[in-house]
Amino acid sequence: MNKFFITILFLVSTLFANTTNDIDLKILKDLGIESSFIYNKSLQSTFDEYSSSENISYYNNLLRKSSLNAQIVRSEIESENIPDAAFFIPMLESSFVNQTNGKNSPGGLWQFIPGTATNLGLRNDEFIDERLDLHKSTDAASSYLKKYYKKFNKWYLALLAYNCGEGTVAEGVARASLDRYLELNPEMSNAESIKNYKRMLSDYRASKKGFSDLYIVLNKFKSSYSFDYLVENNSKNKYISEASLTYLKKIIVFSMIAERDLFKSIDKKAKYKLVKVKAHKGLQLKSLANIIDMNYNEFRTINKHIKKDVLPIDSKVYNIYIPQEKLDVYNQKIIMIKPVNEAKVVDSKVIKKVQDDKKSIKTTDNKKDNTSTDKKVIENKKNSKVVDKKTVDKKQVDNNKQTIYYIKKGDSLESIAKKYNVSLKKLKSDNNKKSNSLKIGEKIEINR
Fold it and tell me: Is 155 in a helix, a strand, or coil?
């Protein structure tokens, strides 16, 4: 029997001899995974698939095209003492492409959903989406991973939690630990304490409540936990989704491929290194690009977190990014540009419409003495409101406190009512609205 076992072990070792080495074992060790996982058949299949020449070429191309983004992620991971394998999270999440499909969709290199971004202190509103801030989002991702590492004390569990959530991982690990404990101690199966622990896990799966109970079970049976056991029994017991385990295997495999120096583009130097500088509120992005003699579209690419064409006006200064080589020029010329009128920051489309209307008013005034028809004016910088009133002078408009608002993307009647401190019922009544539906560019009267 012993001879048979030794023979099998030799054959397995020989099978993987050409694909594994000490570096592979170190990758597993850094992540907190047992070295025996190197012989997992699914891991080997994943390696075979992604180490094909076709896939190597594909991912090399991704890294080459996104060298700046990749460089930022790599530097952050190294400085935060996070395992190198975490570098490949954005490759799986976003292909290192810094974008989002909308305010409520996952966004950025790390594909944070809005709720997670808020919890991590990332701003996401009509002016700014810091999920697209290359440095700030990467700092947040590092904090996120370290938070999970502190919870689980294993980096691979932190990576899994990043993908499928802390509760899913805690419940799966706790259940796998308890199941293995009972396999090793079958005489305990009917103990009241065991029934109670099982009930805790069952209640959480049913209601997603009792989060703290998961850690009670997990800590009680942590000495019985084995990742090999979880993987081997996962198809039957569904501790962790197979998609999440595949996600982890891909990260491990990408790390192995990188250590074999097959991702040649991983060390490709970016066109430049970014530095963070401060700019005054209300400055136009085009002016900022001009003073450093930088293509505007390229400037917007490295500052995608700024949604508008101007910096927000709700803080005195705001951070932007420029190439390091442009820093001296920027410091010399920044004082040369001035912020735009605050009213213009609200919506450039509104301003254009107002300007066109003012031209029309001027023409009418030349033809008719002191007759006011469809006047639309922008109030002073302090009020920053667009006013619309028929056959009434400016003094009367100010007294009535009427504001005209033109609908833009992301607006709702509720948000407008809250912003201007009026009731939703009054807002709908004043505008003859029977429903809450809005169209971009639609005019809304706000009477206060």
Answer: helix
3-class DSSP state for residue 166?
A: helix
Per-residue pLDDT at 420: 83
Q: Residue 405 region, left (φ>0) first, then alpha (ψ -120 to 50), else beta?
A: beta
Do the Cβ atoms of 145 and 83 come closer than 8 Å?
no
Residues near 272 by Cβ (< 8 Å), separated by ≥ 6? 68, 323, 324, 325
Identify the pLDDT of residue 408. Answer: 75
Question: Residue 100: beta bridge partners?
Answer: 107
Partners of 375 in beta bridges: 389
Q: State the average pLDDT over residues 61-70.
A: 95
The secondary structure of residue 251, as a DSSP letter, is H
Which pLDDT score is estimated for 103? 72
Contact 342, 384 (CB under 8 A): yes
Query: Can you tell me which residue has the tokens 């805790």?
Result: 200
The tokens for 19 are: 């694909």
Task: Tell me the range of 10-14, 307-311, 426-430 where mean pLDDT is highest.
Answer: 307-311
pLDDT confidence bin for 20, thresholds 50/70/90 = low
Q: What is the pLDDT of residue 441?
A: 65
How far apart CA 27 and CA 11 sit, in angstroms, is: 23
CA distance 390 to 8: 91
Burial of 115 (0-12, 13-18, 19+ CB in 10 A): exposed
User: Which of 17-21, 115-119, 280-284 is the least confident region?
Assistant: 17-21
With tokens 């029977």, the residue in question is 434
How many Cα atoms are found within 13 Å in the side-chain-facing hemisphere of 132? 23
| Half-sphere exposure (Cβ direction) of 269: Cα atoms closer than 13 Å | 3
